[in-house]
Backbone:
């Protein structure tokens, strides 16, 4: 018990008098972690009732998921939307961040502000607004409609991440390349892009996840043959608790973790 | 000298302008997308909120908000849920951040995984997990009754309790990250100086450490409160239709009543309050300092 009476910090308070803090912090961290982890064992349960730990294990809910045309279609839509959003948002986001960073005109601040606004606009407002506009353009329930709305939500993330990378990048390297005869695009692709690739990969992964995870806009503008996975999951969560959701959730957790690990490994720069 | 340089300078200026313009053009696709899918829709809703069914200009939708008790209830619920969520997040998040800030870096980074894990887990996955844990025949009720802690299943979900649990879970990282950041930045010498001058550990905390961590706390709490105001999914699922916040009401107005005017007006109010709070908070603390890097 000597540990308990030892000082815990420079202010000479002892661990014994700090125990409440350790307990509170422990409980809070437990609270944060448990929901993300409990789903995984639940998905392998044989029972359709909730038991923990499950009495019998099976792959029943995974068979259910992979055997259902509706879930498979929704998954395909979500993947298509995610990949297209990733391509669109990353491309135009990197272009915009580079343009803003290099040009620095009077309007740069204003444009940057405009590109970041989707962060502060309540998503529900975007959802119904986009629905209203799409209804007039015939874009409701189309893949292109979902991709456009999701890309708009992802662009601020791309612009923020890439801008901060460009700020810490020494732009003189690009000037050197150009003085040696490279055109501006060539200098960008050969010199600048490889050095900001970590932030580009991170923004691509985040763009994909922004779309793949998005619920509210998808609820309004996706439907029919183009329902997203999140839309179907939300609908089934509201109605009843189907353990198939646990199987899907587990797969989503695996996918997300894999993407994050890939972005860490692939994008790790020399520094 | 100037005679020769003048035309060249003019040409250089033209080149520079052309280059600036072509760089500027790189922003256009993104700007266009944001204009079409965000600015135009929001502006359109703003316009709709001032129109009645016949298309005449009216303040009807805003007047109803003030006069009808059901709107008042929605606003009160939204406000209550947001205040409670923020308060609970501060009550649990501040001590957690404090605990982490005292740890050696390596240990703190391990704790950081616990804080970040919810960030990495899909919102719907977490909502489902809470349903599994909290419902009538869910894990917490089953365990509680097996252990003899209570006899009847207690209503933990499809009500305010469930909504709050779900929302606190989502919002805690948004509070812990900026608070932790600001605590790490506090120079420990201040605390040693306070102790040297005779302050007890408690006094040193309240009079030195806490005031220094307030900017981070304020930034985090504001962010949590603002994000809470617009919540839709958690109240809809974990509230079981009994907790109707502004966003849920907006969705119902559209899905069930096709009342674009009323929904738009609510959306405009929600947006205006959000902007007002952001503006107010930015006068007090530099929000971007705490939120730019982490988010």
Residues:
């Amino acid at each position: 018990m000597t540990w308990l009476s030892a000082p815990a910090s420079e202010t000479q308070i002892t661990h014994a008098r700090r125990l409440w803090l350790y307990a509170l912090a422990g409980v809070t961290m437990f609270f944060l972690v448990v929901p993300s982890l409990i789903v995984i064992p639940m998905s392998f349960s044989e029972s359709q009732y909730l038991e923990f730990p499950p009495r019998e294990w099976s792959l029943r809910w995974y068979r259910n998921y992979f055997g259902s045309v509706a879930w498979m279609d929704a998954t395909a839509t979500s993947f298509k939307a995610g990949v297209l959003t990733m391509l669109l948002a990353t491309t135009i986001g990197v272009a915009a961040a580079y343009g803003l960073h290099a040009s620095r005109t009077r309007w740069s601040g204003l444009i940057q502000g405009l590109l970041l606004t989707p962060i502060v606009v309540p998503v529900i407002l975007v959802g119904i607004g986009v629905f209203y506009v799409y209804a007039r353009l015939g874009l409701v329930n189309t893949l292109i409609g979902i991709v456009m709305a999701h890309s708009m939500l992802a662009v601020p993330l791309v612009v923020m991440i890439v801008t901060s990378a460009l700020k810490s990048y020494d732009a003189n390297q690009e000037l050197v390349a150009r003085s040696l005869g490279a055109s501006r695009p060539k200098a960008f692709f050969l010199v600048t892009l490889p050095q900001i690739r970590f932030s580009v990969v991170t923004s691509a992964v985040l763009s994909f996840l922004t779309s793949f995870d998005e619920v509210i806009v998808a609820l309004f503008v996706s439907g029919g043959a183009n329902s997203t996975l999140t839309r179907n999951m939300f609908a089934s969560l509201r109605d009843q608790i189907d353990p198939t959701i646990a199987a899907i959730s587990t797969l989503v957790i695996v996918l997300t973790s894999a993407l994050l690990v890939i972005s860490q490994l692939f994008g790790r720069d020399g520094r | 000298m100037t005679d020769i340089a003048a035309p060249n300078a003019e040409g250089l200026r033209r080149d520079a302008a052309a280059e600036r313009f072509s760089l500027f053009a790189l922003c256009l696709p993104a700007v266009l997308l944001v204009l079409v899918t965000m600015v135009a829709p929001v502006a359109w809703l703003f316009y709709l909120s001032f129109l009645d069914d016949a298309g005449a200009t009216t303040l009807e939708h805003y007047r109803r908000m003030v006069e009808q008790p059901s709107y008042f209830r929605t606003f009160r619920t939204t406000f209550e849920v947001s205040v409670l969520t923020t308060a609970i997040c501060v009550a649990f998040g501040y001590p957690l951040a404090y605990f982490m800030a005292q740890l050696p870096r390596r240990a703190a980074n391990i704790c950081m995984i616990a804080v970040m894990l919810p960030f990495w887990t899909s919102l719907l996955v977490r909502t489902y997990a809470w349903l599994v844990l909290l419902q009538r025949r869910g894990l917490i009720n089953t365990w509680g009754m097996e252990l003899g802690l209570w006899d009847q299943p207690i209503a933990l979900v499809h009500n305010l309790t469930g909504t709050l649990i779900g929302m606190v879970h989502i919002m805690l990282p948004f509070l812990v990250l900026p608070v932790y950041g600001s605590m790490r930045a506090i120079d420990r010498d201040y605390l040693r100086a306070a102790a040297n001058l005779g302050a007890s550990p408690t006094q040193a905390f309240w009079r030195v450490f806490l005031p220094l961590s307030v900017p981070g706390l304020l930034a985090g709490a504001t962010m949590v409160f603002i994000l809470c105001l617009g919540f839709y999914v958690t109240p809809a699922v974990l509230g079981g239709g009994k907790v109707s916040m502004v966003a849920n009401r907006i969705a119902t107005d559209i899905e069930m009543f096709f009342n674009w005017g009323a929904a738009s007006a609510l959306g405009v109010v929600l947006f205006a309050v959000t902007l007002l709070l952001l503006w107010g908070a930015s006068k007090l603390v530099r929000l971007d300092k705490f939120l730019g890097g982490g988010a």
